[in-house]
Specification:
This protein is an alpha+beta fold. The protein has one domain: NADH Oxidase, CATH 3.40.109.10. 38% of the residues lie in helices and 17% in strands. It is built from seven helices and four strands; from the N terminus they run ααβααβαβαβα. Helix 2 (24-35) runs antiparallel to helix 5. The longest helix has 21 residues, at 89-109. It is globular.
Length: 173
Amino acid sequence: MPDTIDTILSRRSIRKFTDYPVDDQSIRTILETGRWAPSGLNNQPWKFIVIKDRSTMEELATCTHYGDIIKSSPLLIAVYLDTTTMYNRTKDIQAIGASVQNMLLACCDLGLGAVWLGEILNNGNKVNLILNCPDTLELMAVLAIGRPAENGRQSTRKNLEEITYYESYGKQA
């Protein structure tokens, strides 16, 4: 199986990390893969904030029920939608999702673990204050990244027959 497909099918969310820091070259590679995601009109509506400072992480941990994940991570990347570059909200949010997925896959290829934190969006305003973000940036995700201290959990997916139709909704193959 080609490497990309194998990475997609084997990647799992990692929620516990070792203390080992993520090196600057790996961080740059992760950001590059996020930057190269497709976006409508090539507007590249994302902004990334790299967070390694422990005191900032402690503050961010108070913004989510998953604070322990943030505290155990040596690296966070906050992913934002830059509303000043938006041309279609839905399409731009989809582009952000593609950017995040690229970064998660890059982490896997680099031997790193990562998890996409979404519940923290419920406290996006508090996160923005902590990270000194202007109102034009809307929090879309926080990625916790590091060397895995655990194996990814087992995961299942619905059968393709449950979610796939041909030519029109309700028509099975």
